[in-house]
Amino acid sequence: MIIICYFLSLAVSASILIWLIKLKKKDPFPKNSILWMLLWGVWGCAVSSVFCAGLEIAMMIRKLGFDTVYAVFMESTGDNFEDNIDALMAVRGGPSFLSLFWEGFITAAIPEEIVKFFITREFIINKKLAAKDTIFNSIMCCSFVALGFQMVEDFMYVNGGILSAI
């Protein structure tokens, strides 16, 4: 069942990729540059995820103290990082609105968008993929990099549910 969900999540990304390539049919990018934008998007997602996880741990250490965070991580039977963070939230008394806002926007969205910006800037300015028709080509470069992010995030967030995969 989980394999089907992973394939469904990747099918969504593949259909969006095909649609974007068809939009660019008149003046296509070189095929290898599309692959590189997708791969750099995947790499950027990994980098920003590690950075975001580090920010979350740093905030928990600041709020709870290093000894408490270390004890929860050592005693937790959680299989993944999110389970350990949930255990830390339970020790702290549950998530507050401010902590959820911080987690959603400051430690997740802003680092992701900064990484996407620098990757896209590299392709637009240094690789000169947006030399003519700059607005549309720039949007397409951003779309391919964001699609690389989306592929990884879809793959990470599918927890065995068909609806979340779709």
Oligomer: single chain
Radius of gyration: 19 Å
* Class derived from helix and strand content: mainly alpha
Distance between the termini: 13 Å
Low-confidence stretches: none
Query: What is the helix fraction of residues, given as a range?
Result: over 70%
Give the rounded overall mean pLDDT: 75
> What would the principal axes of the Cα set say about the shape?
elongated
Major sheet characteristics: none
Q: Count every helix, treating DSSP H or I runs of 4 or more residues as helices.
A: 7
Number of strands: 0
List the defining traits of the structure above.
single chain, 166 residues, mainly alpha
What report would you give on this structure?
- There is one protein chain.
- With 166 residues, this protein is mostly helical.
- It is 82% helix and 0% strand.
- It has helices spanning 2-23, 31-64, 66-75, 81-92, 97-126, 134-157, 162-165.
- Helix 2 (31-64) packs across helix 3 (66-75).
- The relative contact order is 0.19.
- The mean pLDDT is 75.
Q: What would you say about this model in short?
A:
The chain is 82% helix and 0% strand. By secondary structure, it is mainly alpha-helical.
Helices, strands, pairings?
Layout: H1 2-23, H2 31-64, H3 66-75, H4 81-92, H5 97-126, H6 134-157, H7 162-165
Helix pairs in contact: 1-6, 2-3, 2-4, 2-5, 2-6, 3-4, 5-6
